[in-house]
Amino acid sequence: MLLVLCVDLDDDLGRKTDFDTPVIGRDNVEAAAVSLATADPEDSDVNVMFEGVHLADRIEDETVEVAVVTGTETGDVAANRAVGDEVDEVLASLSTREEVQAVIVTDGAQDESVIPVIRSRVPIDGVRRVVVRQAQDLESMYYTIKQVLDDPETRGTILVPLGILLLIYPLAIISDSLGLPGAAVFGVTSGLLGLYVLGRGLGVERLLDRAAEKARNSLYAGRVTLITYVVAAALLVVGGVRGVETLESVEAATGDAMGPLEVLAALVHGAVTWFTAAGVTTSLGQITDEYLADRFQWRYLNAPFYVLSIALVLHAISAYFLHRVPLELPRLTYLAVMLTVGTLLGLTSTLAFAIAESRRSRRAEQVG
């Protein structure tokens, strides 16, 4: 047996006519449709009920029953429950031993939200959506936009850029009235909009949220790295400034145009000391946290020595190109000595801590 269910989720039939729901039977549904059309010719549920009658008349190879079920005016969860109760009443009124299959007839996306409720009570063979040809998909578009704007994340992605775009022209007018260049306001606002869209596209906000959460956890857990990272950031800033100052002093001393290699060497020579201090600070902070968490391993101590080795090499190369070799040594001799010292420092630390790690492992095995 096929049951054609016409769904009126917001109960237009019950509110605008004298019919009690559910309405069961082809003639009763047709009469209800005529009554609703008389009360409100523009109501789309009229088309739903006539479509249900039309489907019932077209099917001739099996027993067909048509019914109208309604919800409540609010159209929310309570409406879905009301539809479910009326579906139970319709099924109970069917005097048949055949298996009942249902076809749902609705007027758009809002009424189709009740389909899971109906499916839990009777198998569904199909869904027929009825819309007026002059307004094809208009209601579905409305509810799609409504659902999109109900999502906080999607709402922020769409409405924030749109709001900034709409504010550009008023801000330009206000800036002109205040004697400020409107083009500058337009450029700044467009730049902010571009940064926002780019950040949303790249997921920068999620990275910032994770970084903030990690910093908060580090603060509450008493992690030393939180302090060392702040100190290292300050040292990096000072190192950058010092590198620029060194470049300016070298340019003033030479008086000639410097090539790209000399510019890079000057920046490195001025900043390498401060950058080295930042690297050593962060590595020592990380080593301290690993020790406090009982995860310390001897090879972790290689980090500050590696930083020092790299710093020696970079300092020697930059001094070689800038002719700023200390101790009155020949440039090439100084470069060779520092490269050798840097290499030996890295190799020595690696070997020493590897031996210490090996002895520690053997001692742990003997104790175990």
Automatic annotation (TrEMBL):
Keywords: Membrane, Transmembrane, Transmembrane helix. InterPro entries: DUF373. Pfam families: DUF373. The keyword Aminoacyl-tRNA synthetase does not apply. The chain crosses the membrane at residues 156-174, 180-199, 220-243, 263-284, 305-322, 334-356. The keyword Membrane applies. This is DUF373 family protein. It comes from Halorussus gelatinilyticus.
